[in-house]
Amino acid sequence: MQQLLLDIMPLPLPTLENFQPGRNAELLHMLTGIVSGREQDRFVYLWGNPGSGKSHLLQASAAAYTQSNRKAVYCCTQNGSEFMFDSGMDCIAIDDVDRLDAAGQIALFNLYNRLRDDGQTFLLLSGAVAPVYLDLRQDLVTRLGWGLVFQVHELTEEEKIQAMKTHAADRGFDIPQEICLYLLRHGRRDLPSLMMTLDALDRYSLAQQRPVTIPLLRELLQVAS
Question: How far apart are CA 178 and CA 39, in angstroms?
Answer without folding.
Answer: 42
